Amino acid sequence: MRWDDFRSSDNVEDRRGGGGGGGFGIPMGGGGLGIGAIIVLTLAGWALGIDPRILIGAGESMMGGGAPQEQPQRPPQGRTGAPPDDRAGQFAAKVLGNTEDVWKVVLPAQINKPYAAPKMVIYSGATRSRCGGARSQMGPFYCPIDQTVYIDLSFFQEMQRKFRAGGDFAYAYVIAHEVGHHVQNQLGLLQRAQARQREIGEPEANQISVRVELMADCLAGVWAKNSDQKYHFLEEGDVEQAMKAAEAIGDDRLQKQAQGYAVPDSFTHGSSAQRVRWFMNGLKNGQVQQCDTFRAARL
Asked: Of the candidates 299, 297, 158, which has an alpha carbon nearest to the alpha carbon of residue 217?
């Protein structure tokens, strides 16, 4: 993947080394969860097919640490509004910048909607979001409240170490997937999906979550297709990298690794085959309209 010529985004906040990031701190001791509890809840989430962020957030709420609490301001140790100066940070900033350049053209052209770029927070270990505490064990996520992608870049090392799914395009797929959630948010899909989930039972709510996640996979493919048409950044083996990453983080694969068997009714992100299929669907056609998982008869 050739990414050095991508434009770096100005919407990146680097909180690494900031002790929780800028003006916000992570409650310790009496407030919040200890690292052991976080690991247990993360493993339990994988085993039960529940997004670990839900369990961690619930645990923090019970401990009185679920809501962000502003702390006295400390001088920021990261850099805000400028690209990071290390290779991994530059990669994330440039991929985000490229998604901005692509979506600001694709969304108006295909959906007749303007595109407002999200922010990205790069952190190490733990930080705060408007959606609650962010920790590296949770993996990258998008918070629709502050329209920000949160990512600890050590996740890419975990992809290689735990899932044997590495490579620049595999990592770019992860970022593009989270940006896909931002596109859904701008189209009003996330709000409607969440409202519907509150009205129905858990199995049906899980199915909605799966459709949301698979659509984000497809939108990541739409980005890659349109970006490659203009910037010709894909190289031999890149697509296979992304497919391997999508396959590695399917619910069935994760559940089998955690407990030896899969429970489809508990899936929240989709099976390995589904994630690969929808990513490739977006990559092949490059059309947002082809990513409507909510109308698809077959996922």
From this structure: 299
**Cβ-contact 222, 147 below 8 angstroms:** no
The highest-confidence range among 79-83, 136-140, 151-155, 265-269, by mean pLDDT, is 151-155
Rounded Cα–Cα distance for residues 107 and 189 (Å): 14
User: 13-71: per-residue pLDDT in tens?
Assistant: 999 975 333 322 222 233 334 334 444 444 444 444 445 554 455 444 444 443 333 33
Residue 161 to residue 38: CA distance in whole angstroms? 20
Tell the residue number behind the tokens 């909607």, with chain if given: 113
Q: Which of 173, 119, 117, 122 has its CA nearest to residue 151? A: 122
Q: What is the rounded distance in angstroms from the CA atom of residue 177 to the CA atom of residue 292?
A: 15
pTM above 0.90, yes or no: no
d(CA 222, CA 270) in angstroms, rounded, equals 18
For 212-235, the pLDDT digits (tens) are 999 999 999 999 999 999 999 999
For residue 267, the model assigns a pLDDT of 65
Q: Is the dihedral of CA 214, 215, 220, 221 positive or negative?
A: positive
Residue spans of the domains in the chain: they are: 12-22+78-291
Q: Distance between CA 276 and CA 274 in Å, rounded?
A: 5
